[in-house]
Specification:
There is one protein chain. By secondary structure, the chain is of the alpha+beta class. Helix content is 26%, strand content 23%. The chain contains three helices and four strands, in the order αααββββ. A four-stranded antiparallel sheet has the order 1-2-3-4, with helices on one face. A hairpin with a 3-residue loop joins strand 2 and strand 3. Helix 2 packs across helix 3. The two termini are 30 Å apart. 14% of the residues are buried.
């Protein structure tokens, strides 16, 4: 949901503001908000989570430069290593975390 962007409202990334918007007001948000909420939930139950800035490469040519306009999460799972989790990219996104320790591609 990008209503705030269209209305030129400032978007706060504070935990309280993100929780209020996505949970209390039952609104959507963009990747930074959605993954911030997931980060808060995962940390609350004991996971070590690191936010990552990302480039969106979907639909781009190999030599086309893109900015860091997306956010995802690196989640450390004890005994299994780091995983990439992303709830803020619709459509082509994976539906489960992807192991960052895998030696094989995560494509079915």
């Amino acid at each position: 949901e990008n209503i705030d962007v269209a209305l030129e409202r400032t978007i706060s990334m504070s935990p309280e503001a993100v929780t209020r918007k996505l949970v209390d007001q039952k609104r959507g948000g963009y990747c930074f908000e959605q993954n911030t909420l997931l980060k808060l939930a995962l940390e609350h139950i004991g996971f070590d989570v690191t936010p990552l800035l990302c480039r969106v490469r979907w639909g781009k040519k190999a030599d086309e430069e893109t900015g860091f306009t997306h956010m995802c999460l690196r989640v450390e799972i004890a005994g299994e290593g780091p995983f990439l989790a992303d709830v803020g990219f619709a459509g082509t996104n994976s539906i489960e975390p992807i192991s960052l320790s895998a030696t094989e591609p995560a494509v079915p």
